[in-house]
Amino acid sequence: MEKQTENIRYDEEFILNPRGLKLFTCRWIPLNQEPIALIFICHGYAMECSITMNSTANRLAKEGFAVYGIDYEGHGKSSGLQGYVDNMDNVIDDCTMHFTSICEKEENRKKMRYLLGESMGGAVAMLMHRKKPEFWDGAVLVAPMCKIADDLRPHPVVINVLTKLSSFIPTWKIIPSKDIIDLAFKVPQVRQEVRSNPYCYKGRPRLKTGYELYRTTLQMEQKLEEVSFPFLVLHGEDDKVTDKSVSKQLHREASSTDKTIKLYPGMWHGLLYGEPLENIEIVFKDIIEWLRERASLGNTRLERELKHRNDDLSKYA
Known about the structure:
Layout: E1 2-5, E2 8-16, E3 22-30, E4 38-42, H1 54-62, E5 66-70, H2 88-103, E6 113-118, H3 120-131, E7 138-142, H4 156-165, H5 180-184, H6 188-196, H7 207-222, E8 231-236, H8 244-253, E9 259-264, H9 277-295, H10 300-315
Parallel strand pairs: 4-5, 4-6, 6-7, 7-8, 8-9
Antiparallel strand pairs: 1-2, 2-3, 3-5
Helix pairs in contact: 2-3, 3-7
């Protein structure tokens, strides 16, 4: 499907991953101009790209960025049991493979490439970076899931039992949890839109999915110093879903030389589309300023790649 509105071309396409699943992908391309840079969006748990992230993508495309998205397996319009993630490593591999293929197209090779990850998507972005440390030019991490908030985390005894059960009944929806939609999105209309979106998963977390999210957060929390790319991390001070203290820890411990943190008093988890419009404008002003400033500095990744190539050639001269 292709649509054109407000000088933006929107396309959808299904791709096949190595495990034989059809994955939904989409893109928002600015018309009448060469894209400033490429932005790859990584959505949150139980969310999807084409509807819930549409406003985010359109805002960025209007600013001149080409934006690309993918629904993870078990999410959105992609194949797989809804709300089920058997292995987060597969999600990282799928995103890396699709996004890399876009970057390596002839018309995109010289363009800057940024990740934008929301909630669980923030963890996805950081794990993609860990997989290919030199590949990405930076990331915007919105309330990243480096650690699930203590109020949402089951008791350690419950976690232990559920972890063992996940091997036997992985798809069962028996993890006790609060209503994330009520906790994440401040604006009641947005809560209703998410609830009425058939592509958003609204049941209890499935056992193996919960285990994979828990495993991923533990992995992230213990290796924050391995984050080395430029990043902007954003977190609402009143976030009850992911832990803002770990965003502070990420900013403190990451080995990146270019790192910025923004904390927003009174804002909740859904910074990109769950807040009142005046708050969303504040958040996007910060995001766009950060992206534009770095895109204007020149492509240091390309310079680095060229230097490596020249060094390799000099060995044989």
